[in-house]
Amino acid sequence: MTPRDDAPAPLDPVPEPHTGLMGRFRNYFLTGLVVTGPIAITLYLVWWFVTWVDGVVRPFVPLAYRPETYLPYGVPGWGLIVAFFTLTLVGFLAANLIGRTLVDVGETFLGRIPAVRAIYRGLKQVFETLFSGKGSSFRKVGLVEFPSPGMWSIVLISQSPNEDIARNLPGQEEHVSVFLPCSPNPTTGFFFYVPKSKIIEVDLSAEDAATLIMSAGVVQPGSAPDPKRAAALAGVANAARIANASALQPQQPAKVE
């Protein structure tokens, strides 16, 4: 049978875009960046912390006990190990009667120095609250209308003010102290008191809130990447390239008998 006269004519081949090769290189580069970026930054921060602790602890370690005295190179992390065992030993000594007596004597001495007293007491309360495991500060996350009406910011909810401060706050409503972290460095921010009714509590952990703030909203809660997802990005990009190439292939006319 001869083909019908109204059969569609064969289409001319569509040339492959000139940016196909560059697009593949771009996808591979981004995949490599996604895979190696977090690992490199994490290793850099760990190395920086270990090096910083080594530099702080090394002057207090006698030369005879330093690894570089007997080895042609230094041992990274030696200062961190010494600091860990030293702090553990101090905690053990402070837990008995003699240790508690020495701590009380030291606190009494520091309490008599006007400038040092306020700093020491404030830092001690902060450390006791953060590391005792009994405090509830900064475990709840909320939203407050800041810096202007209609704009909402994430805050970490802390404790209620003491009686002296609560008495001087305007209105009869209960207030709560909150900390508003700044992006991209959540260790800095604003501390203020806000009426309890003005806070909208959200079901979000403090870690997720810190990640959201540090990423400036790029990483949303619940969107943590699957560990296998980054490794599969190259395959997805390759599959998309093959699909696009297939879509650009000329379509053969159907035979009509």
Automatic annotation (TrEMBL):
<feature type="transmembrane region" description="Helical">
    <location>
        <begin position="28"/>
        <end position="50"/>
    </location>
</feature>
<keyword id="KW-1133">Transmembrane helix</keyword>
<dbReference type="Pfam" id="PF04367">
    <property type="entry name" value="DUF502"/>
</dbReference>
<dbReference type="InterPro" id="IPR007462">
    <property type="entry name" value="COV1-like"/>
</dbReference>
<keyword id="KW-0472">Membrane</keyword>
<protein>
    <submittedName>
        <fullName>DUF502 domain-containing protein</fullName>
    </submittedName>
</protein>
<feature type="transmembrane region" description="Helical">
    <location>
        <begin position="70"/>
        <end position="94"/>
    </location>
</feature>
<keyword id="KW-0812">Transmembrane</keyword>
